[in-house]
């Protein structure tokens, strides 16, 4: 399967699920539902749902019924994070996926609430997944940890919100290798990793399978963000679909700021090769996930 085929299928089945799961634009109150849909249907590759689908397909040997709703829930969480990241209090961006950001169109208050509602709807969706109850509980737990602050009952783990906090608080400070890796594994990597783990769990993955999927996800998530850092320095806003050069302008802790462009590109490539090794036992069934991984380090936007 080509990456275009994989991502086109992910867009088709995920968008159909999102249409079913999200309130329509005429549902009251109009403003928040239209804001939720504005950001959710603004485009995007549906990368995280694609990872859910292909991990489930690899583990099960076919696409399990209802797994697209798991992918749609994770896409809601991703979209909520983008809405909040773009707010003036955080990254203060006016452009996302080539379109005006949620707060630009609907105002800050509605944008904040739209993000909150997408997060809540995501967990409501996860609570009704069509997989065995034990698997659904595991997925809920994994997703909750991945989007949280990084501290929980089980100790420290990468968490998206925690990564965002560290990212904000590190602005203007000299970046270190340890700081940049911690931010990337949490802010971006955690949601990518849990997409793969959740897909595997939905399909009945064993503990050993989950460990391999987690390793693949961690390597892929870090490589993905390194490439994002590189693109922010090397592409323009039209190519990126968001404001280019903001990392350097705001003194963000990035991989190129620590290692330079050439080593950053090499590091991303090395991590993808390590990710491949983690899922090698699945043989040809792993090819779609490998195809997505390769696409992520070769993309230009």
TrEMBL record:
Gene3D superfamilies cross-referenced by the UniProt entry: Farnesyl Diphosphate Synthase (1.10.600.10)
A Pfam family hit: polyprenyl_synt
SUPFAM superfamilies: Terpenoid synthases (SSF48576)
Cofactor: Mg(2+)
GO biological process: terpenoid biosynthetic process
Keyword Magnesium in record: yes
GO molecular function, one term: metal ion binding
Family that this chain belongs to: Belongs to the FPP/GGPP synthase family.
Protein name: Polyprenyl synthetase family protein
Organism: Terriglobus albidus
């Amino acid at each position: 399967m080509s990456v275009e085929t994989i991502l086109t299928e992910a867009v088709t089945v995920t968008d159909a699920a999102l249409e079913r799961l999200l309130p329509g634009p005429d549902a009251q109150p109009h403003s928040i539902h239209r804001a939720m849909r504005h950001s959710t249907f603004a485009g995007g590759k549906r990368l995280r749902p694609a990872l859910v689908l292909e991990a489930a397909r690899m583990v099960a040997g076919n696409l399990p019924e209802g797994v697209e709703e798991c992918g749609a829930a994770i896409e809601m969480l991703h979209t909520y994070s983008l809405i909040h990241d773009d707010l003036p209090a955080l990254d203060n961006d006016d452009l996302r996926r080539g379109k005006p950001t949620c707060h630009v169109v609907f105002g800050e208050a509605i944008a904040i609430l739209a993000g909150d509602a997408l997060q809540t709807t995501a967990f409501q969706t996860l609570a009704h997944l069509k997989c065995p109850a034990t698997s659904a509980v595991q997925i809920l737990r994994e997703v909750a940890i991945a989007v949280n602050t990084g501290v929980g009952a089980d100790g420290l783990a990468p968490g998206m919100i925690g990564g965002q906090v560290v990212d904000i608080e590190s602005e203007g400070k000299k970046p270190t290798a340890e700081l940049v890796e911690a931010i990337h594994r949490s802010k971006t990597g955690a949601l990518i990793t849990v997409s793969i783990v959740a897909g595997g769990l939905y399909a009945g993955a064993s503990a050993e399978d989950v460990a391999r999927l987690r390793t693949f996800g961690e390597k892929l998530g870090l490589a993905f963000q390194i490439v994002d850092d590189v693109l922010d320095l090397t592409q323009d806003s039209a190519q990126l679909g968001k404001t280019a050069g903001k990392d350097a302008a705001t003194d963000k802790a990035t991989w190129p700021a620590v290692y330079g462009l050439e080593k950053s590109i090499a590091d991303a490539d090395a991590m993808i090769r390590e990710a491949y090794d983690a899922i090698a036992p699945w043989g040809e069934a792993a090819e779609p996930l490998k195809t997505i991984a390769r696409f992520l380090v070769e993309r230009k936007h």
